[in-house]
Specification:
This protein is mostly helical and about 170 residues long. The chain has one domain. Helices cover about 75% and strands about 0% of the residues. The protein has 4 helices and no strands.
């Protein structure tokens, strides 16, 4: 009877772990997609025209696209699976977004507790710096999450100068 209960317990644990993994990966994917869609739309504050863009916004967007392209090509070249690449990409970006939004939440709560209320001026003043921090942290997260070549695998083999092993 013990082995039957142990088997049922193991099946339930695997089922629960699978559901939790699916929920976590879905949340990470949702946060990543929303965050990546937010970046280009946040550049246009008043209207959708290229005249509105600053050189910093254009440059940061080009760097972001280049880093994402680097991630994709390096994943393909190192033969990292699609599922593993997406999981790595989404978890790195979603983690950065959740950390940044948690910090923003703490700043807003601190402002409310010290001032008693929060004005629209505070949100307008900080939105530009939060957006820029979000883009920079996204670039850093994608750059850091890029798959790497195993460092020890591609080093040269040491030369053995022992003459007794290699008679000539």
């Amino acid at each position: 009877m013990k082995s039957l209960l142990s088997t049922v317990d193991n099946l339930l644990v695997h089922f629960a772990a699978g559901i939790m993994s699916f929920i976590l990966n879905s949340i990470y994917g949702f946060v990543t997609v929303i965050g990546l869609l937010f970046i280009p739309f946040s550049f246009f504050e008043y209207s959708v025209s290229l005249a509105e863009l600053d050189i910093i916004e254009i440059g940061s967007f080009i760097i972001l696209v280049a880093v994402i392209w680097r991630f994709i090509t390096r994943s393909y070249r190192l033969k990292v699976g699609l599922k593993e690449s997406l999981k790595r990409f989404a978890s790195s970006i979603a983690s950065v977004y959740l950390i940044l939004y948690s910090c923003c939440y703490m700043f807003v709560v601190t402002e409310i507790t010290t001032q008693g209320s929060i004005g629209i001026e505070y949100l307008n003043h900080t939105s530009e710096s939060i957006r820029f921090a979000l883009v920079l942290m996204t670039i850093f997260a994608v750059y850091a999450a890029t798959p790497l070549i195993d460092f020890l695998e591609h080093t040269e083999k040491p030369v053995d100068f022992d003459a007794s092993k290699n008679p000539t």
